[in-house]
Request: fold
Amino acid sequence: MKLKSILISLLISVFTLTGCTSSPEKSGDQPKDTNLEEKQPSSSKEENKDSSQAKAPVKGLRGMVVHIVDGDTIDVKLTNGKNERVRMTLVDTPETKHPRLGVQPFGQEASEFTSKNLIAREVTLEMDAEERDQYGRLLAYIWVGDKLYNQILIDEGLARVAVYPPNTKYVDQFREAEKKARKAKKGIWSIEDYADEDGFNSEGENTSSTGSSVKAASAGSSTGNETSDDTETNTSCSGKIKGNANSKIYHVPGGSFYESTTDNIVWFCSEKEAEKAGYRASKR
Reply:
């Protein structure tokens, strides 16, 4: 009888132990659920990472484009009702109705492209270090939604990169775009020795992408060129060393860009004088 009681006690102990060990097996499924839950925040982090890569809204003045002066200059009516003439920063398109140069190759194409893509469009004007030029025009990067129009002109081969410090925020980005356009021989780069960092060589082959000769201004053109740039200083040295006040580049008589450089001219009597004033020689 005593032995029977002992056996019963042992059996009860075995069943009790079995019940205890089965409990962790059930709870053993719990970490798996926890792991799935832990992956959830990881997925959220990926989504947050993608969101951070999206371009943040550009800060600047907002308005509507109401007039196209030429490929790189527009008139914008700001939200405060004020009209501003805006010169696009870091880009330069060929002239369209210059009093001396007339229509340069791809100048008309650039103007028409800008008119087609910007007229009556809402834009954001992003400023750089210097907000206005010496003529009072706003200097800006033109944003249409999340698209940077200044670069689009370069992408299309309708503008060259024109660096006027201190406004250089996107200069590296623009130079990369210019390299691609040049390699593909788009627009201005389809004409040999026509465009480079010093400007446009009017002595180049004056044939546009449409195959038409563009040696003179087109009659009845709806776009006009900004002539307020046509200023000269230190004219006592006129006809000698010609410097451009914006680019800080000087040209010598007979140089490729001597005749075509017509904006913001500063005359020097010698190259030494120009270099002393902070100018460098044109590469051609």
Observations:
- The CA atoms of residues 115 and 143 lie 15 Å apart.
- The two ends are 120 Å apart (CA to CA).
